[in-house]
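Annex B. Sample input.
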Amino acid sequence: MDSFVTKDGKQLRLGYTTGSCAAAAAKAAAWMLLSGETLYEIHIDTPKGIRLDLPVLDITRSADSVSCAIRKDSGDDPDVTDGVLIYAAAAKSEKKGIAIDGGKGVGRVTKPGLDQPVGAAAINSVPRKMIRENLEEVCETLDHQGGLTVMISVPDGDKIAEKTFNPRLGITGGISILGTSGIVEPMSDQALIDTIRLELRQRRINGLKTVLLTPGNYGMDFLTDTLGIDPKIPVMTSNFIGDALDACKECGFQRILLVGHIGKLVKIAGGMLNTHSRYGDCRMEILASYAGACGLHPSRIREMLNCAACDEAIRIMKENDLDKAVLSHLTDRISFHLNHRTGENPQVETIVFSKVYGLLCESRNAESFLNILREEN
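Annex B, continued. Sample output.
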């Protein structure tokens, strides 16, 4: 594609989704099946209103079907599906209408709460609609009165899926065919937030009333190695803690336990519910202000303000026997902002740790929430 967006002062090239690839491949295969012609390029209109003119690859004909592929282009987005071939095989059917299914390398849904029902191929609603509408257009143009079946497949999709959220979501055997706009916007925050929402909704549909959140791999390691939590239980929020809390509230969870490294969670004490560094870095200012309020000498406060990492700031607090007091105030303030975001329904508890010092502090009911999580799971 030659379309771009500007983010953080950089021009980034747009790409197109696996859903667009599947729809384009299906349209090309159906056209070649019904017309007898060979196509080397196909166009589709995406839900975003951008027209795609895509090369048709690896055309294969048999007595009663045609198969072809479209190569996925993720633009400047770091996507594990970039460059893979998305295949569609079209065949005539005696049954009227369009039947869509997934073959090799397309995942199958095994848990409720996802876009598709249990047992269905992981081809989401918008891609299915795109495939159906494009095939209906072909049938109308070529005056085909019967039905069509289309099988979407992705060679090596099972291996690619291991690098995605699919195994955690209960989608087995391959990747998902995704996309709501048909277009990939590089480094899309919304795509990550949508994934978090999907995982939370699935947990709630499965009956859980308590949810465990952690921002990233540090939290996951602490939960599994120190607290003995099954790694399938936590939901990773990345920097989108506020959005994850909103989604928990929408889903109807009763209790939330947030476990995270102090380098992330200290920002929440300053009211930052998106902890990405591009929105600010107030870690040392917050820690130094609480340490000063607890009596730390000004010379040591200045030393804290010059620290590069939270562990160094904690070392200074420990040397002055102020770590417990400062961390207690910090926990209270983190809890205030978390519960302010949810309106105290659901209630949010928190556990803060350090890679150097281990467990640092926890809110009043954090331990009981942890026990409830173990019982529910």
